[in-house]
Design brief:
113 residues; mainly alpha; 5 helices; 65% helix
Length: 113
C-alpha cells in the first residue's frame, strides 16, 4: 500500500482517468479548504483517494475495466437508455477487493481553530 500522502497516493494511481480525477478533486478540495479553513475536507479527500490508490496497485486491470463500464453507462444515459443496476453496495465491492472503508482509523492532518 502507498503511504497516505498526496504524492505517494497520486503516484500509485495506474489509470489516467484516476490521475485526472485526483488532480481535479485536489484542486476543488483545496479551494474549499481555503474558503472554509477546515482541513476535514482534505482529510476526506486523502483517505478516499488512498483507497483508490490501494485498489489501483492491487488490480490495475480492474481499475481500467471500471472506467470502461462507467463510460458504457454514461453512453447509455446519454442515449436515454436505462442503466443496469448492481446488487451490491460500494462497501461490499471494495471489501471484496480487500479495501477497508473503516473511516474511524483515518489519521487527522490537523484542525484550524
Amino acid at each position: 500500500m502507498p503511504d497516505k500522502t498526496l504524492r505517494a497516493t497520486r503516484s500509485a494511481l495506474s489509470v489516467v482517468q484516476d490521475r485526472e480525477g485526483f488532480d481535479e478533486g485536489l484542486r476543488l478540495a483545496l479551494a474549499e479548504v481555503r474558503v472554509s479553513l477546515d482541513l476535514g475536507r482534505l482529510n476526506e479527500f486523502i483517505h478516499t483517494w488512498w483507497l483508490v490508490a490501494c485498489d489501483s496497485m492491487k488490480d490495475p486491470q480492474g481499475r481500467r475495466e471500471l472506467h470502461e463500464r462507467a463510460k458504457a453507462a454514461q453512453d447509455l444515459a446519454a442515449r436515454g437508455e436505462p442503466l443496469p443496476r448492481g446488487t451490491r453496495s460500494w462497501r461490499e465491492l471494495l471489501a471484496e477487493r480487500g479495501v477497508s472503508t473503516d473511516v474511524d482509523h483515518i489519521p487527522r492532518v490537523g484542525a484550524v481553530a
